[in-house]
Design brief:
There is one protein chain. This protein has one domain: Neuraminidase (6 Propeller). It is mainly β. The protein has 3 helices and 25 strands. The strands form 5 sheets. Strands 5, 6, 7, 8, 9, 10, 11, 12 and 13 form a 9-stranded antiparallel β-sheet that branches. A 5-stranded antiparallel β-sheet has the order 1-25-24-23-22, with no helix packed on it. Strands 14-15-16-17 form a 4-stranded antiparallel β-sheet, with no helix packed on it. Strand 14 and strand 15 form a beta hairpin.
């Protein structure tokens, strides 16, 4: 096929991935395109968007047809516009074809149980199958914490099937989470009590449903990871660095205490992996019968230090792609760091990396997601 041109002084690839796959890259900026590269850094597809694209994924239907999904913001980026003391951006889930042309747009479906929903959150929206979606939204709610009325950001997870809501859960229905929070939890601050802004005590960023449909794992940036019983919606356990509760499981002493983690993936129904933003490492966590079997972390060289976005994707048993998430170009020690790096997990050898050299206003905050899909364009 004929490759597209791009400015190689601003986008630099080093090395070649040994796996014939594609990378989906979505700079988070005012005029940022979605781009699909092959493993050698050649541009295959480029699509301009009118919003802020995020969390791109390559998917397959039952017939093997490949397509993509991603959330595009459609409103103001600043969370203060939604009276939250955290950063929230509302958006919609877009389903596209292989060349990123829109096929379907998914939004939150209103329900009588939660009447004040603002809309879908920017990230953490998933396609589970044909006409089957798991999406997250937010609302601002008045609740009781320590017998005092306060104002919080309510995190909502909704499962949709064939255009109908088949399951819905909200964080305020688990009051144990209020006291498990380690950030944005100033419940008794006068501005919160006066509803000037709401406490972003949880901040859901990803979720995954087990293959047997019995459980849901949810990642909260300001709490940690929780496990829910799908049928009863009961909170089974919490693992995180915040205050301990009756549902908290404590990590083994030698394990790194993860925090601000993103992008949960399922290995099996008892094992997940994710990106630990507090240590910038890939972490696997296995829990059976409410007992932590292991929590193993693998760090990789980087000078990036932040708590926003980022992900890790196991391409194969021994190859991992790391995405360092949000980047601040005005900070020299972060600006020149690679955005995507691929490693051989057995040898620790770096196989390829992508670095963006651009200080334009359109790329002040840059976020990328790594895709593990095969290369359908050059087969």
């Amino acid at each position: 096929m004929q490759y597209l041109e791009y400015d190689r002084t601003k986008i630099k690839w080093q090395g070649t991935s040994p796996v014939n796959k594609t990378f989906l890259i979505a700079p988070l900026g005012k005029k940022s395109p979605i781009m699909i590269f092959n493993a050698a850094g050649q541009l295959l597809v480029k699509k301009q968007t009118n919003g802020f694209p995020a969390e791109l994924r390559q998917l397959y239907d039952l017939s093997g047809y490949s397509y993509f999904s991603g959330t595009t913001a459609v409103g103001p980026r600043c969370a203060q516009g939604y009276n939250a003391n955290g950063r929230y951006t509302l958006g919609k889930l877009y389903i596209t074809d292989n060349y990123l042309d829109t096929r379907k747009v998914i939004d939150y479906i209103p329900t009588p149980n939660i009447p004040k929903v603002l809309g879908l959150h920017f990230h953490g929206n998933y396609v589970l199958g044909e006409e089957h979606f798991l999406v997250q939204a937010i609302s601002m709610e008045e609740v009781l914490v320590d017998n005092v009325k306060t104002y919080v950001v309510n995190c909502i997870l909704q499962e949709q099937l064939n255009g109908e809501v088949v399951w819905e859960w909200q964080s305020i229905d688990c009051p144990e989470l209020f006291n498990a929070s380690f950030a944005r939890n100033e419940y008794h601050n006068q501005k919160v009590l006066d509803k000037v802004y709401a406490c972003d005590y949880a901040h859901m960023n990803s979720a995954v449903k087990t293959s047997d449909g019995k459980y849901v794992y949810i990642s909260f940036k300001h709490i940690g990871i929780i496990k829910l019983d799908y049928s009863t919606k009961e909170l089974i356990w919490i693992i995180g660095p915040g205050p301990k509760t009756d549902r908290t499981l404590e990590l083994p002493k030698k394990a790194l205490q993860f925090a601000h983690q993103h992008d949960i993936h399922l290995i099996d129904n008892n094992t997940i992996y994710f990106w630990d933003n507090s240590h910038f490492c890939y972490t696997e966590l296995k829990v059976e019968n409410d007992e932590i079997i292991y929590c193993s972390s693998t760090s990789y060289p980087t000078k990036c230090t932040h708590t926003v976005m980022g992900n890790a994707v196991k391409v194969s048993d021994n190859i991992i792609d790391l995405c360092y998430g949000l980047r601040y170009p005005l900070l020299p020690h972060v600006y020149l760091q690679p955005i995507i790096v691929e490693y051989d997990m057995e040898t620790g050898k770096k196989l390829m990396e992508l670095t963006i050299y651009d200080r334009s206003d359109e790329l002040v905050n840059v976020m990328y997601q790594v895709n593990r899909g095969v290369n359908i364009y050059e087969n």
